[in-house]
C-alpha cells in the first residue's frame, strides 16, 4: 500500500469513530463518506453527505470530521470537509456491517426463505 493509501485508511479509521447522534452506526458504515482525497503536501479533502439537508447535526458532524482528520499523524495543514447533496444519501449506501447493526441485514430474505421451506415441509400453512 502506498503512503497515501495508508494515510487514507488511517483517516477512514478515524472517521469511523464519528456517529450521527440519532443513529447507532458510524458515518463511514452509514455511507456518508463519499471520498477522501489526499492532495499535495498531504492536505486532505473529505467529500461527504448527511442523511438529510435538515439533519440536526448538520454543523456538528462535518466539524467533528475536520477535527478528527487533523488529528491523524501525517495529515497536511489544509483539511477541507465538503458536504454534498448529489448524489443524495439513501439507505442503500449503508454498509453490510451497518445494516446488521441497524437490524436491516438480509434477515428479511432469510425469513422469507425459511417460511417457504416450512410451507414446503408442511410445517406451516401459507397465509391466505
Description:
This protein folds into 2 domains: 3-93, GMP Synthetase, Chain A, domain 3 (2-Layer Sandwich); 95-128. It contains 4 helices and 3 strands. It has helices at 3-15, 60-70, 96-101, 107-120, and strands at 33-38, 44-48, 79-83. The termini are far apart. Mean pLDDT is 87; it is low at 108-112 and 124-128.
Key features of this structure:
alpha+beta; GMP Synthetase, Chain A, domain 3; 2 domains; 12% strand; globular; disordered C terminus
Radius of gyration: 20 Å
How many independent structural domains? Answer: 2
Could you give a short account of the major beta sheet?
A: 3 strands, mixed
Mean pLDDT: 87
- The CATH architecture of the largest domain can be named as 2-Layer Sandwich
* Range of strand content: 5-15%
Helix content: 25-40%
Secondary-structure-based class equals alpha+beta
> What are the low-pLDDT stretches, counting only 5+ consecutive residues below 50?
108-112, 124-128
Order of helices and strands: HEEHEHH
Amino acid at each position: 500500500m502506498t503512503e497515501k493509501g495508508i494515510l487514507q485508511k488511517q483517516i477512514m479509521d478515524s472517521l469511523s469513530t464519528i456517529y450521527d447522534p440519532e443513529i447507532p452506526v458510524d458515518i463511514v458504515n452509514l455511507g456518508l463518506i463519499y471520498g477522501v482525497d489526499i492532495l499535495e503536501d498531504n492536505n486532505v479533502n473529505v467529500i461527504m453527505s448527511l442523511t438529510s439537508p435538515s439533519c440536526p447535526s448538520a454543523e456538528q458532524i462535518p466539524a467533528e470530521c475536520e477535527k478528527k482528520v487533523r488529528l491523524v499523524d501525517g495529515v497536511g495543514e489544509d483539511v477541507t470537509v465538503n458536504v454534498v447533496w448529489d448524489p443524495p444519501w439513501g439507505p442503500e449506501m449503508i454498509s453490510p456491517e451497518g445494516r446488521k447493526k441497524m437490524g436491516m441485514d438480509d434477515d428479511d430474505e432469510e425469513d422469507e426463505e425459511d417460511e417457504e421451506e416450512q410451507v414446503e415441509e408442511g410445517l406451516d400453512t401459507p397465509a391466505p
